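Entry — protein

Goal — fold tokens:
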Amino acid sequence: MTYLLIVSVFFLLAGLQALGLAWFGLRGFSYERSFSRPAAYEGESVEMIEVIQNRSPFFLPWVRVETSIPPSFSFNTREAVEVRGGHFHTSVFTMAPFSRVTRRHHVTLTQRGHYALQQASITAGDLMGMRTLLRDVEAPAEISVWPRLFPDLRDALPSSRFQGDLSLRRWIQPDPFLVNGIRAYRTGDPERDIHWAATARVGSLQVKTHDFTADPRLMVLINGQKSESQWGDLMDYEQEPIEYAISLAATLCLDALRRGQEAGFAASMPLDEGEECVCMLPGRRSGWEEALLSAFAALSIRMVRTFPTFLDQLPRLSGTDIVILSCYDSPDIEQKMRQLRMLGNSVTLRLLPEVRHASA
């Protein structure tokens, strides 16, 4: 008799719990997630933070949160599982009434890219499995994975790149610290250039004349084609040379910026899901380094223009050190390089590793 009473009470409580779950449902349940940093370099680790809250007075025996995760996210936790050939992150927990749970997962970012997580699937149920609730919630979380940088690429810089005090008279500005002579004052000469000692000696206003120093700008151009005959998009296993080019371009641009130069890049590929070639003309303003790295992260390896067409559509460049990163050389590329040189640019073609000259 006692046994029957216990069983009856158990089923009664289970039924009440199922009714409570049906009544309260997931009304007071919320799920949010974020990353500890908005951006990180490829190979670095960040935290993915989950905040789960139950604002209702109802006890949730079990709740499962399942969300799609990029395959390049390597979780250092047992909760990262692979389901049906895709990658999913699953968290299972119990929620007391009016409770809040914060979970931190260490994630290693193994692939450059711009990742925007969106929905999560929430499943809740009672202990007996009499009722199960399912709901999709918006749980946005975004992170940019910047390309891996090379530690030392001085040999990869263009040979025509100017260093130190190189005297040159093209697209260059006079250096106030390099004085190469004295001449008579002319209307419009700045007062700071007046040479007072020479003025006193000659008896008329004399001004200093300045030499010219190089103030180069770097523009890196990335060819998104692996071969001249390529028309379709590259398969994942074919993209390694282009990824190398992106890392090399990022390294060159940051090296130039940290040396006080202007830097920019363009590619015959779009950002994210766009359909236009990316072009960021050389600059050096505040936040420019982060802007370049974020663009490199968002670069999608999809060809939207052939490389010669892309070069034709570039904004007019002059007085710029241009580095072209390409898997191949061709007569069309050589012709476009000559045209760029005629505009007063220095142009260097760097063939990517394990790539042979097109005519070889």
Summary: Confidence is low (pLDDT under 50) at residues 155-173, 355-360.
